[in-house]
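Note to self: the last two entries modelled the partners one at a time, which told us nothing about the interface. This time every component goes in together.
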Amino acid sequence: MQLDKLGDWRKTHFTADLTPDLIGQTVNVAGWIKRIRNLGALRFIILQDCTGEIQITLKKGKIADSLFEKSEVPHQSSIGVTGVLKEFKQAKKGVEIAPTEIKVFNHAPEQLPLDMTEKTMSDLDTRLDHRALDLRLPRNLAIFRIQNQLLHSIRNVLNRNEFIEVITPKIIGTATEGGTELFKFKYFDKDAYLSQSAQLYKEQLTIPFERVFELASCYRAEKSFTNRHICEIYTLDIEMAFVTMEDIFKLMEEILTVTLRDIKNRCLEDLEILGIQESFNVPRKPFKKRTYSDIVKLVNNKTDMNIEWGEDISTEAYRKLDEFLPGYYWITHWPTKAKPFYIRPSEEDPKISESFDLQKGWLELASGGTRVHEKSLLIKRLKEQGLDPSSFESHLQTFDYGMPPHAGIGFGIGRFLTSITGVDQIKETVLYPRTPDRLTP
Amino acid sequence: MQLDKLGDWRKTHFTADLTPDLIGQTVNVAGWIKRIRNLGALRFIILQDCTGEIQITLKKGKIADSLFEKSEVPHQSSIGVTGVLKEFKQAKKGVEIAPTEIKVFNHAPEQLPLDMTEKTMSDLDTRLDHRALDLRLPRNLAIFRIQNQLLHSIRNVLNRNEFIEVITPKIIGTATEGGTELFKFKYFDKDAYLSQSAQLYKEQLTIPFERVFELASCYRAEKSFTNRHICEIYTLDIEMAFVTMEDIFKLMEEILTVTLRDIKNRCLEDLEILGIQESFNVPRKPFKKRTYSDIVKLVNNKTDMNIEWGEDISTEAYRKLDEFLPGYYWITHWPTKAKPFYIRPSEEDPKISESFDLQKGWLELASGGTRVHEKSLLIKRLKEQGLDPSSFESHLQTFDYGMPPHAGIGFGIGRFLTSITGVDQIKETVLYPRTPDRLTP
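The predicted structure of the combined assembly is written out below.
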């Protein structure tokens, strides 16, 4: 099979740019063959690219026989088409292309490992095994175009609010933060770990920069097999000096409402592809706030479950409360014991902490709080949590550099994307997810 | 030592916002004490924050004695000041603050581990040991504010050019790409590695997305102790379908000129702090292109060194050519043997490849090329490079999904930032650098 060279040929338009005002013009489009329909002397090719699709109509007799023959290539092959844009009222876009040249850049085999017809979906594991192909499904393109907008909007809000983007190390020398299993490895002659979060670094970075954020991957060696856990997690980390958690509520509500409004306005077609354009809502500010104690009462009063004050609230309990807790809301003032050492105990009642989770219905999207900024209190908190202050030496030292009062939040991008796109599994919102049983591709 | 609570007190202005039009207003500022000068009944505090600095002037007798006493806190302590903005012609900003309240949020000790006077610099290793404090030096704040602008500008250009931001896995299952030492670790029961680059994934992602970019860290377990090597590297990775390297030149030149122009226009004070506002130039497009063969000839004709065609060009050779090769330029058409398997051999002469490096003077900033997109040729190239195609099975499979012709570039952010800020070492442009002998903080 002879392939065409790209040479000097370049696409002039994305399919999304092909509108009726271009009718009569010669255009170059490129992408892949989504569908071919043969009706005797008529052949219809649906050419898809990263922005959408366009129909290529070939009429035997009207075009060179060689061109008609050449156009018979397998689905998903990579092609370029030069042709004239014609009116075609039946198409959604109102246009189609009458080709004068077709370039076949790469053949796909007749038999593909995935069903790309969109009539039935291959199972998720098979799809992930052939992820680069799977991602061509319009629903997947839609998910990651929405993610692109999401990242863009988040950064815009943070830029407007004078935050500086930082890059913290993912290779760390001590298994500090506690709580989570870490991936361990040999860093030359030393032991090292993959960072489970930017927490300690982002706190330190409020010392010079006051307001910092990072969008990066972090790593959890947890053998969790739920729909919402993965081992390589892309998170938004925010930390801000001279504020408390009350200010973080406001900032995060701005981020979420701006981001969701941007997606609603700019990703219309993607929401349509996912069938959620009607149900996609931008929440109102401020979000409802409930204390941990309120939630415990709610569980005990409204479900058949019983929680002692101080216990964690299980996903099962949240699910049972689903009808009472719609949309986005904050759960504040968790038991100090249930939160990490860097979370600030309340002045009035040190059993309660200046902490919060951000929920959407039963799903936890983010957590954070006001931090401890006094070295002596932090050492006390470490000991209370059964951690050894001497293994935090380097971090504790930074509290001697005029550490400001600060507060922050960690927000899982994958979970958020799962929740707003309405897909079942967080794995669908990650290009190449890593789970305990998935390390490839 | 009693610390003040933040309570409901909030800063109303960054110091950079304090301009003469606000004279007479009461403002809240917060940051840290950069300098204190005592002249008997007069005390001057230079309060620094993440945007700049402001003078706080205290006159004994004019303010409460308790306030005057309270203002005697060590350098670098974290404070908040409420006061009235007054005219002060001698100051660069033309204003100072007459305080009515001072809050001390955190004390720094009398003796700090770094010289923060800017008169002498502590040595780099000591500075990196106390990085959070070191970063308060105005030159460091400037470097990372410039980085912030740089990342922002790069993304803007790519967004305008219809690129999608992607997140590729950093945990990979096979030590594929070759050439570099990788960090290896146990991923549950399997062997895994830290990704040395997004190369294979970004190529795969042109299949659905056509134009992708990523800004992320990658990892090299190389025992290099030069001024320009680190083990955790933040890079810009770009890959584009239906183009060749000629298009990448144009895109990258747009990225660089826009980014440098943005920095020149928007980071004026930072360039001033670094003392480079005069010498900071935005290069003209297009950049000069020289072939690898040209450079070899230049080395052999203009220096006392001798290079055989096919050999790599050493940093020493580049440095000796410094006067002949100013500014930004491309070195194109490297020997196929000297470049990785995914780089496309030229049609006319397969010994030469469709590859390039982007140089600034003697410093390599980026490299890339047109890629091989045909499976059979890629297998041939793997074998020629002494690599085993069977260990690339999962990657090779993606070439059956209608892989488009594509080209791309990898660009080191740290090296670029080093080169434009004029610092000596790449370590200075990374918040928490990782080198073979540095794993903390």
